Amino acid sequence: MRRLNRKKTLNLMKELDAFPKVPESYVETSASGGTVSLIAFTTIAFLTVMEFMVYRDTWMKYEYEVDKDFTSKLRINIDITVAMRCQYVGADVLDLAETMVASADGLIYEPVVFDLTPQQKELQRMLQLIQSRLQEEHSLQDVIFKSAFKSASTALPPREDNSLQSPDACRIHGHLYVNKVAGNFHITVGKAIPHPRGHAHLAALVSHESYNFSHRIDHLSFGELIPGIINPLDGTEKIASDHNQMFQYFITVVPTKLHTYKISAETHQFSVTERERVINHAAGSHGVSGIFMKYDISSLMVTVTEEHMPFWQFLVRLCGIIGGIFSTTGPTF
Fold first, then answer.
1. Cα angle, residue 189 at apex, residues 188 and 193 outer, rounded to 5°
2. Antiparallel, parallel or unpaired: β 183-189 and 192-195
3. pTM for this one?
4. What is the C-alpha to C-alpha distance for residues 283 and 242, in angstroms, rounded to an integer?
5. Burial class of residue 298, CB neighbours in 10 A (0-12, 13-18, 19+)
6. Are the beta carbons of 219 and 234 closer than 8 angstroms?
């Protein structure tokens, strides 16, 4: 009785078989079938390798939210060389809250030679080439995010030619902590002094003929300093055509949280527009000679996260590839 029930059960399961088998006596091999089989297995191997490469790759996911942190300080990282002697120039920050941050709070004035050595020129040329490619291909920014901390800083290496030329420029480098509000970082003639209505620069003692605001920006960034990240103004060089020349940079700073498989940091990205003009009061072009970087803080915060394909999704896609090819070429096997 039990054997009868078992036999009925097996017969029922056979009737439910959705994948009927062809008897081996009915199967015939052929040259064309072997060729298709070879092509099918080669295609499976190729697509499997390609899928594994996709599985190993990562991509950056961008999310946006309102920045609710208005109490913390904003760090500005600066490395700028101006073609004037250090005793003739002064740098400081004045924000909308009328708070003045003097350069003595974190900046170093270092006398240097403005002209670069051949090695430094080559590194600067490479940096400018990268900047031009970044403007054309924005997806390269994801590659830079992934390589953070792998690359060196964009600062130029020290001179190695032991030049006997006397310093004719001033390298201003270091960092400042400012309020998280719009402000103006500037380098102009004379040292800054406090003033009841803001501040002033002692420019009267500097000869007008010594004005030269040709400059090179080796590095300018906001937030935590992350080696390997290339910022929009890194490698910028401007040559003044007149003693009375004003260089202006209008910067929009975007708070950014960066989460990759190698680092997790809070930094800031920024975009910039540039303008330069000669100060000529007789022609109606008013202002002060110098370098002015006016920055504003965006109310949006960007979270950049590096993501990876889950292993289960890789297996599902792999099974789909193999199963699809077998289903398509099955009758010819």
1. 90
2. unpaired
3. 0.73
4. 15
5. middle
6. yes
What does 189-232 look like in DSSP terms, one character per residue?
Answer: ES-EEEETTEEEE--TTS-GGG----EEEEEEEEES--TTPPPT
Contact 127, 228 (CB under 8 A): no
The amino acid present at 107, given as its one-letter code, is L
Distance CA 249, CA 251 (A): 6
- Could you identify the residue written with the tokens 């079938």? 33
Q: Which amino acid, one-letter code, is at 51? A: E
Are residues 197 and 236 in contact, defined by beta-carbon separation less than 8 angstroms?
no
Element (H, E) at 13: helix 2-15
Per domain, the residue ranges of the chain are 32-59+309-332, 68-152+166-298
C-alpha pair distances (Å), 137 with each of 61, 142, 221? 17, 10, 21
Return the exposure string of 55-68: e unless at least 16 CB atoms fall within 10 Å of the residue's CB, then b: beeeebeeeeeebe
For residue 288, what is the enclosing H or E element? none
Rounded distance, CA 128 to CA 216, Å?
Answer: 12
* Two tokens, residue 41: 């297995």
The residue among 220, 229, 210 whose CA lies nearest residue 292 is 220
Residues 213 and 244: beta-carbon distance below 8 Å: no
Q: What is the pLDDT along the chain (333 residues), one digit of tens a residue?
A: 556 667 777 776 666 665 666 666 656 666 776 787 788 888 888 888 888 888 888 778 888 888 888 778 889 999 999 999 988 898 888 888 767 676 667 889 999 988 888 888 888 888 888 777 777 766 666 666 666 545 555 566 666 655 677 888 999 999 999 888 889 999 988 777 766 666 777 766 777 788 899 999 988 999 888 777 788 888 889 999 888 899 999 999 999 888 887 778 788 888 899 999 888 877 777 878 899 999 999 888 988 888 888 888 888 888 888 888 777 776 554
